[in-house]
Amino acid sequence: MTKTYTVTLIPGDGIGPEITAAVINVIRAAGVKINWEEQSAGASVLEKEGTVLPQRVLDSISKNGVALKGPITTPIGKGFRSVNVALRKELDLYACVRPAKTLPGIKSRYEQVDLVIVRENTEDLYAGIERKIDDDTAESIKRITRGASERIARYAFEYAVKNSRHKVTAVSKANICKFSDGLFLEGVRTVAQEYPQIAYEEVLVDNLCMQLVINPEIYDVLVLPNLYGDIVSDLAAGLTGGLGVAPGANIGAHAAVFEAVHGSSPALAGQHKANPTALLLSACLMLRHLGEVAAAQKIEQALEAVLKEGKVRTFDLGGCAATEEFAQAVIAKL
Ligand code: NAD
Question: Which residues of the chain have pLDDT under 70?
Answer without folding.
Answer: 1, 75-80
